[in-house]
Amino acid sequence: MKIAVIHENAETLLAEHGALLSGLASMGHEVSALAPGSGPETSTGFEALGVEYAMYPLSPRSLTPIADMGTLLHLKQILFRVRPGLVLSVGAKPVVYGSLAARLIWVGEDKRVFALVDGPGFAFAGTGFTGRLLARLAKPMYRAGFRSCDGVCFRSAGAEAFFRKLGVLDPQARTGVADQADPETLDRALLSFMGMIPTD
Predict the structure, then answer these.
(1) Contacts of residue 44, Cβ cutoff 8 Å, sequence gap at least 6
(2) Which UniProt keyword terms apply here (predicted)?
């Protein structure tokens, strides 16, 4: 199967989920990593894992409509080329734009879209008028991103409760919690949630 993993930072993806990428490749899957990078050495790190790397533009700490639309379009172009059967988005903006891009292309083809969510993200961390405005803008974006997913896995029960209280998760949305501190155990929980290995 072709699998695309979308992250907001290539170096962080390698550091935190490199074993997951390598494991997927060793299972015989064609894995593509999509993330902004800082230099040519980034590509080398993914190649060492047997993973294809593609870079896309992202402004991770701001909501700028023109730049964000560019992010969505770039992700659509890459996913159209890769045509994965499974997409996993990790991080605030990838959960929104990566999941949306996966649903907006090759409509009708069999594919599964998942998200791994650490927490509320920068859009809900602000205070005052600007903070409230940012959160107000982010809510429909998260709602659209979550609705594009077949399943959303949260890193803590508190994170899931936050988004449910916010009203951006549909009542029938399939969710799970993977709060394991050990990376290997976390990877197994995530793979199980996505239906790629048997449930323990």
Answers:
(1) none
(2) Transferase
Spatial distance between the Cα atoms of 46 and 4, rounded to a whole number of angstroms? 13
The pLDDT tens digits of the residues spanning 113-155 come to 999 999 887 777 767 777 788 888 889 999 999 999 999 999 9
| Residue 125, both tokens | 């961390």
Instruction: Count Cβ neighbours within 10 Å for each residue of 127-153 and write b for 16 or more, e otherwise.
Output: eeeeeeebbeebeebbbebbebbbbbb
Which strand (E) or helix (H) includes residue 179?
A: none
Q: Work out the average pLDDT over 45-65.
A: 89
Residue-range domains of the chain with CATH: 2-191 (3.40.50.2000)
**3-class state of residue 25 by DSSP:** helix
Query: Distance (Å, rounded) from C-alpha 85 to C-alpha 29?
Result: 10
Provide the edge-to-edge strand list for the sheet that holds 175-177.
Answer: 52-54, 30-34, 2-6, 86-90, 112-117, 151-154, 175-177
Distance CA(200)–CA(197), nearest Å, equals 9
Phi, psi of 117 (to 5 degrees): -115, 120
CA distance 43 to 66: 27
